[in-house]
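Budget justification aside, the reviewers requested a transparent look at the raw inputs and outputs of the sequence design task funded under Objective 1. We therefore reproduce one unedited record. The lines immediately below are the structure tokens for a 298-residue chain.
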């Protein structure tokens, strides 16, 4: 099925997506997600550390997220601040049982706020109305957002573990073939990041919206978005490193770095969603709302 798609269709879809993305002022969706992330960042990390820690070890997962993920953006000072907040949020040793229950419920609610916001925005970009009003529907949506968060966290941690193992092997091989070491390392990091991002985008487009996507649209949309994300992300990362806002402005600079990166990442998710929508129209394979698909199946 993938072989029947002409190359110019993908490029045509990208160009048309840029036009529609601007016409619909979709950047405002990224601003909303940045706001929710500021509130939900630590709760999301707490959930990821807890569940992924059951498999990989709590301390190892915490080190990966804070050193390689947050620390790469905010610097050591920002990572230490977030580490302290996480420790305080997970310390229920002296709290009453009702405080623990309420704290866990608040943690679960805030940790899924970002993904809930992403779902709302994707529905708007796909022109699919949201079904509101039912408590059971809202609970299912929150559960789906929670599941997406856990899967995304697991993939991130797993990829960092694999990257560490591969880099260790390449360091050993580099002693034998030093001329290929640097280039091979760059390619391995690029490919692993591409696979990780494509999988994460795919999970977001598959699990969050109340719509049915064909495998063709999902794979092409996720891979294309991941590739564009990495190209732009390299430029953003270079700029943030050169600007060194975290060192210059301290905590405020660290928060600014997170917001800039989240704003860019969120808009790439939404651009990918718009690309899937446009690509579906060009290939006469429209996105079907899940409710309509269920009715047609019956």
């Amino acid at each position: 099925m993938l072989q029947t798609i002409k190359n110019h269709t993908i490029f045509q879809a990208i160009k048309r997506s840029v036009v529609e993305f601007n016409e619909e002022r979709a950047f405002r969706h990224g601003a909303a997600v940045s706001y929710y992330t500021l509130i939900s960042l630590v709760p999301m990390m707490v959930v990821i550390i807890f569940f992924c820690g059951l498999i990989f070890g709590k301390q190892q997962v915490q080190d990966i997220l804070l050193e390689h993920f947050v620390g790469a953006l905010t610097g050591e000072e920002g990572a230490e601040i977030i580490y302290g907040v996480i420790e305080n949020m997970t310390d229920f040793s002296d709290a009453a049982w009702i405080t623990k229950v309420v704290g866990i419920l608040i943690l679960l609610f805030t940790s899924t706020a970002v993904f809930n916001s992403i779902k709302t925005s994707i529905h708007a970009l796909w022109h699919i109305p949201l079904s509101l009003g039912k408590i059971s529907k809202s609970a299912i949506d929150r559960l789906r957002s929670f599941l997406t968060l856990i899967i995304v966290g697991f993939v991130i941690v797993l990829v960092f573990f694999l990257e560490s193992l591969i880099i260790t092997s390449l360091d050993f091989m580099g002693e034998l073939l030093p001329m290929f070491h640097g280039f091979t390392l760059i390619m391995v990091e690029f490919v692993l990041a591409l696979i990780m991002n494509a999988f994460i985008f795919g999970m977001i487009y598959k699990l969050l919206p109340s719509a049915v996507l064909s495998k063709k649209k999902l794979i092409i949309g996720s891979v294309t978005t991941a590739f564009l994300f990495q190209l732009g992300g390299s430029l953003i990362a270079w700029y943030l490193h050169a600007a060194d806002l975290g060192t210059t402005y301290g905590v405020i600079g660290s928060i600014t770095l997170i917001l800039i990166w989240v704003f860019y990442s969120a808009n790439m998710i939404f651009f990918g969603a718009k690309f899937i929508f446009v690509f579906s129209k060009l290939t006469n394979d429209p996105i079907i709302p899940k409710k309509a698909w269920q009715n047609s199946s019956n």
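The longest helix spans residues 135-176. The two ends are 27 Å apart (CA to CA). Computational costs for records of this kind are itemized in the attached budget.
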